[in-house]
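THAP-type domain-containing protein: structure, please.
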Amino acid sequence: MPAHCAAYNCTVRRTIETRKRGITFHRFPRDYGRRRKWEVALRREGFAANDESVLCSNHFKPDEFDRAGQICRLRPGVIPSVFNFPAHLGKPKATRTTATSRQAMESLHTSQYAIKKEPQPNVDLDHNYSLPSSPSVLKARFSEAAARVLSLEKKKRNAQVRERRAKTTITALLKVLREKNLLTEDLCESLKIYSDSIWAGRSTLEVQTPKNRRTHR
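Here you go.
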């Protein structure tokens, strides 16, 4: 499932189109102090980032990226600063805090972060069956599932064709061997065991050696 940018009023998500446009996505820092700065920069009331939360590259300045390698990375200590906030989300006013209040707030944030970091089951994104909010995403997922079903059905039909061909070949070989009296006791027993493994649940091929035919006469 595509990753969505966590910034306020940003609709950018990870798709082939955004990749072609050069838009990259970056996870929130694991360090609590840096992650908290990113959360504050977003100005989203009640928002708490998790290990899967990301921001798109539109919210960082060009000189804040390290493009030396094949992977575009953010430089150490970078904080997102490029946003398009509405008037009511203007820059918050600085408030005066005492050392005691700062210490209390840090303790509160630390305890909240510890709760958020409790182990969670590792769920593969490919198996996330919650309905997406976008109809286009839902349609894409449906098309992908339908294509998968068709592919599996095709493989099943091909396997059945190969099985029928193998059975036809074995039957023809047995006929030739019987006609030329080339079936020995050991070969007959081996063919019976082999036929049992292939025709499980069906009657075992009736193979007669020259000795068996003389017995039935």
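Notes: The beta strands are 25-27, 54-56, 65-66, 73-74.
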